[in-house]
Amino acid sequence: MKKFWAWGALIFGLVYFALPLIGMTNFSLKMRRGAYSFDAYVKVLGDPRFQETFLYSVTLALVTIVFGVVLIVPTAYWVRLRLPRLRPYIEFITLLPLVIPAIVIVFGYIRLYNTSSWLPLTGTAMGANVLLMFGYATLALPYMYRAVDTGLRTIDIATLTEAAQSLGAGWVTILSRVILPNVLVAVLSGAFLTFAIVMGEFTMAALLNRPAFGPYMQLLGANRAYEPAALAVIAFGITWGCMALIQLVSRFAPRPASQPR
User: Fold this and answer.
1) Could you tell me if 53 and 122 are in contact, meaning their C-beta atoms sit under 8 angstroms apart?
2) Which of 108, 112, 118, 181 shows the shortest CA–CA distance to 138?
């Protein structure tokens, strides 16, 4: 009986999620009357605005990932190595982006860094890009921090640090050549999640008036019929591609070390 309910729940979940995707994909292929075709996809992929916004979001996602790694890996490492009592507070801070809406964060940015403030970042394209990158890093903070922290649990960082220091390594060398390679799988998991977040985010990019992929999807959906469905399928494929890569790299993650009694 338990297996019956388990399989029933699985089938229900698959049907619940698969039917809308199948319907959307089927609709995106009906741009040509009376026949299935990839005209909507060809039109979307050939749109210069799609290429511009997609490239912009991919570039910003990569920059956000690099910034997140530089910020999170040393922080999580130092908290676990030297400041374990601060760990609950750090975890609480990293959870705040889940309860604070993105629109509140971006309005705070606009309020603090508008053209009449002491640091008018919103007055230039580069300044707005920097603010948007910080906003994306904030949204990805819960996922990146927990991925890295989970990776650090699987290795004995104290022993690795002592061994590296006994060989004369400095802190930068320890982080870049000892710790980071050992948690690379965890970092990649956080990176793929960050990439998916950046590619689909709308609120921050729209309010900061940046040419990102999210606002382009919304604008296209308000004015076209078949192209938005094709674009949604593409975006869905990107997200699930990131999820599949996470599952793939997770297979190579080291197992947690046994704790001494």
Assistant:
1) no
2) 108
Instruction: For residue 72, give both structure tokens.
Output: 């999170």
Closest residue by Cα to residue 27 from 231, 188, 243, 245: 231
pTM as predicted: 0.85
Q: Encoding tokens for residue 176?
A: 């870049």
pLDDT by 10s per residue, the chain, length 261: 778 888 888 888 888 888 888 888 888 888 888 788 888 888 888 889 999 999 999 999 999 999 999 999 999 999 999 988 999 999 999 999 999 999 999 998 888 898 888 888 888 899 999 999 999 999 999 999 999 999 899 889 999 999 999 988 899 999 999 999 889 888 988 898 899 899 889 999 999 999 999 899 888 877 777 888 888 888 888 878 877 877 777 666 555 444 444
